[in-house]
Amino acid sequence: MKHCGTQRLETDRLVLRRFVDGDAAAMYKNWASDKEVAKFLMWQPHSSQEVSQSVLEDWLNRYSDDSYYNWAIVPKKNGDEPIGSITVVNMNEKISMVHIGYCIGKKWWHKGITSEALKAVMDYLFDVADVNRIESRHDPRNPNSGKVMQKCGMKYEGTLRAADWNNMGICDACYYALLKEERRNSIV
């Protein structure tokens, strides 16, 4: 892998950028405080803007590491206010693999925004960071997350039973992945 950190990416409708110090209010308001957004995630909804600020400060400190990838999802028509995040939550350098997690505020669900962000991040990780395998997973009770992965050309690899946890408790995990060599032939 050729680590290059979180760089600004643009799509037709989105800017994917590093989080900045002033993003805590939007983060709290747009997604981090929403129990429905966090339902199938591994972090608790933020109880205050101060919690969002504390999380944000940790993220900002990590940007100095070129192997840290965490983008704010910002619709171009939204000014500079983030509506969600997309992040490399795990990686294995020995096999050149990254695992991606994402979330956006429910006001922006079912509009293709997450798929557009995921595709841009996947292109960047394949083309610039020279990743070989990109994977993600979802709780089967959250099938829309799997639809995002499918829309971006990821292939279903299987479901691990009672192999994960989230705010709903112990859960199954549906895994999807795309290899760099498969990318040319995928729907992406």
Gist of the model:
The chain contains 6 helices and 8 strands. With 188 residues, the protein is of the alpha+beta class.
Description:
This protein has 188 residues and is α+β, with helices and mostly antiparallel strands. The protein has a domain at 9-132: Gcn5-related N-acetyltransferase (GNAT) (Aminopeptidase, 3-Layer(aba) Sandwich). It contains six helices and eight strands, in the order ββαααβββαβαββα.
Name the features.
globular; 8 strands; Aminopeptidase; 188 residues
> Any low-confidence stretches, pLDDT <50, length ≥5?
none
CATH architecture designation of one domain: 3-Layer(aba) Sandwich
Structural class: alpha+beta
Under CATH, the topology of one domain is which?
Aminopeptidase
Counting DSSP H or I runs of 4 or more residues, the number of helices is 6
What is the C-level CATH assignment of one domain? Alpha Beta
Q: Count the strands?
A: 8
How big a fraction of the residues is strand?
Answer: 25-35%
* Residues in helices, as a percent range: 25-40%
* Strand numbers in spatial order across the main sheet: 1-2-3-4-5-6-8-7
Overall geometry: globular
Instruction: Identify the CATH homologous superfamily of one domain.
Output: Gcn5-related N-acetyltransferase (GNAT)
- Biggest pleated-sheet summary: 8 strands, mixed
How far from one another are the termini? Answer: 21 Å
pLDDT averaged over residues:
96
Radius of gyration: 16 Å
Order of helices and strands: EEHHHEEEHEHEEH
